[in-house]
Backbone:
């Protein structure tokens, strides 16, 4: 015979005590990050949460938010998210990086276009991928370096955005090498000039930001 309809009340349905806080933090993260594909981003969020990995969350809301239909979708905030997820590794597998990229609702064709700037097979040095991402955000080498400093700095937001000169020099040389019209001698003399004018081995936005070549 058919079973009678079950009757439930609030006392019969156990709710895990941690669930309300999980949902609260998830909602705040979604509002701050503004993913263009909430389901895709949510899958990445809870997958990272279950593994104890850095979550795909922006530090703050970015306005206006670019869309895949009108732009690359890539922003400094999203690059910073990727950096939090990958900076503990010197090299990252492109398959894993592509997965993280898609979880941030970024178009795959832009991922491929970025790698066309410096093709790699299976892995890439993380700092180089970050540099390529920064170059995609701006049209000049200095603009790319500005984004890099703001992502890597330990200074508070709105501060000088200082990073170690060694890191700055490594990335600047790398991006410069991708420009066939920029002589190595010019890059070397520019970095040597900068090094003479910095203190404590750190370089910030005010130390280098003036018009330079496009990349």
Residues:
């Amino acid at each position: 015979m058919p079973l009678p309809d079950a009757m439930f009340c609030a006392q019969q349905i156990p709710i895990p005590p941690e669930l309300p806080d999980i949902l609260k933090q998830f909602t705040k993260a979604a509002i701050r990050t503004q993913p263009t594909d909430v389901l895709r981003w949510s899958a990445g969020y809870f997958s990272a949460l279950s593994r104890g990995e850095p979550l795909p969350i922006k530090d703050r809301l970015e306005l206006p938010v670019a869309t895949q239909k009108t732009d690359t979708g890539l922003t400094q905030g999203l690059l910073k998210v990727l950096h939090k997820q990958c900076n503990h590794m010197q090299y990252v597998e492109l398959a894993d990086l592509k997965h993280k990229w898609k979880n941030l609702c970024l178009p795959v064709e832009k991922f491929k276009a970025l790698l066309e700037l410096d093709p790699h097979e299976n892995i890439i040095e993380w700092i180089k991928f970050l540099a390529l991402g920064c170059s995609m955000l701006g049209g000049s080498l200095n603009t790319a370096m500005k984004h890099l400093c703001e992502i890597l700095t330990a200074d508070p937001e709105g501060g000088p955005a200082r990073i170690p000169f060694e890191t700055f020099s490594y990335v600047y040389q790398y991006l410069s090498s991708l420009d066939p019209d920029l002589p190595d001698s010019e890059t070397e003399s520019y970095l040597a000039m900068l090094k003479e004018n910095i203190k404590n081995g750190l370089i910030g936005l005010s130390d280098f930001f003036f018009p330079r070549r496009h990349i």
Remarks:
- The chain has ten helices and four strands.
- The first helix runs from residue 19 to 33.
- Residues 65-70, 211-215 have pLDDT under 50 and may be disordered.
- The longest strand covers residues 91-93.
